[in-house]
């Protein structure tokens, strides 16, 4: 049985001025099917589309509303399905397409162009192990203009489990659409942090020390990324274990 029920009400402690941004993004070529519509195991008998599970979490953390960045192949299915109130579907902006910008920057900038004054709590659909605690922790620790979780394995900032303010997104737009053609969100974030006095470590300039703008998650599973069928099977096993532990 597939569940598409309404999300629980927002948390009283949720940030009223922060919008959620669910990035559905790419073509899911390694997975072999669209990751957004994978069956998330709610319990032993029921599932719901992965994007809807994450969308419900974002609505609890961001009562102002949630934007869904998506590509053209996902549009019809999203429009046909049920969506909670205060959900805005954002296709790739024509200006982004004309600038030949793809990847994470396309979703971030299309949403920024749709609502230029918004601060976005960003979540990519291929992080199926995030919880409400993940999002409320990230929201509470946000320091403008951009805050990211760090991967424990390489201390690399994760731009798609993060919070981006309008100033940081303005700079990403300038870097990506201007003469530099620097479309990587991490490149822009590190440039901002360096200007604010944050030191990087490592010759590649990518490793970061925990501090005001970057920090490791309390649970490393939150950053478990699923791009291939084997990773999705592992994620489902962990999710089923969680469900069993709460019964």
Automatic annotation (TrEMBL):
GO terms for molecular function: nucleotidyltransferase activity. It comes from the Eukaryota. This is MobA-like NTP transferase domain-containing protein. Keywords: Transferase. The lineage of its organism: Eukaryota, Fungi, Dikarya, Basidiomycota, Agaricomycotina. It comes from Naganishia liquefaciens. Residues 22-175 form the MobA-like NTP transferase domain. PANTHER family: MOLYBDENUM COFACTOR GUANYLYLTRANSFERASE. The keyword Transferase applies.
């Amino acid at each position: 049985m597939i569940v598409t029920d309404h999300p629980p009400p927002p948390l009283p402690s949720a940030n009223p001025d922060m919008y959620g941004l669910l990035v559905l993004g790419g073509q899911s070529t390694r997975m072999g099917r669209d990751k957004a519509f994978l069956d998330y195991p709610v319990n032993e008998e029921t599932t719901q589309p992965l994007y809807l599970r994450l969308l419900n979490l974002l609505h609890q953390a961001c009562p102002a509303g949630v934007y869904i960045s998506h590509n053209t192949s996902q549009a019809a299915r999203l429009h046909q399905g049920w969506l909670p109130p205060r959900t805005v579907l954002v296709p790739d902006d024509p200006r982004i397409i004309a600038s030949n910008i793809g990847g994470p920057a396309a979703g971030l900038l299309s949403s920024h162009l749709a609502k230029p004054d918004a601060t976005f709590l960003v979540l990519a659909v291929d992080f199926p192990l995030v919880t409400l605690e993940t999002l409320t922790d990230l929201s509470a620790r946000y320091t403008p203009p951009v805050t990211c979780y760090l991967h424990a394995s390489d201390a690399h900032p994760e731009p798609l489990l993060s919070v981006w303010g309008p100033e940081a997104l303005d700079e990403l737009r300038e870097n990506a659409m201007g003469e530099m053609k620097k479309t990587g969100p991490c490149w822009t974030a590190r440039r901002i942090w360096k200007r604010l006095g944050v030191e990087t470590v490592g010759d590649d300039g990518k490793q970061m020390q925990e501090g005001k703008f970057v920090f490791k998650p309390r649970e490393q599973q939150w950053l478990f990324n699923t791009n291939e069928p084997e990773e999705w099977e592992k994620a489902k096993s962990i999710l089923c274990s969680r469900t069993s532990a709460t019964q």
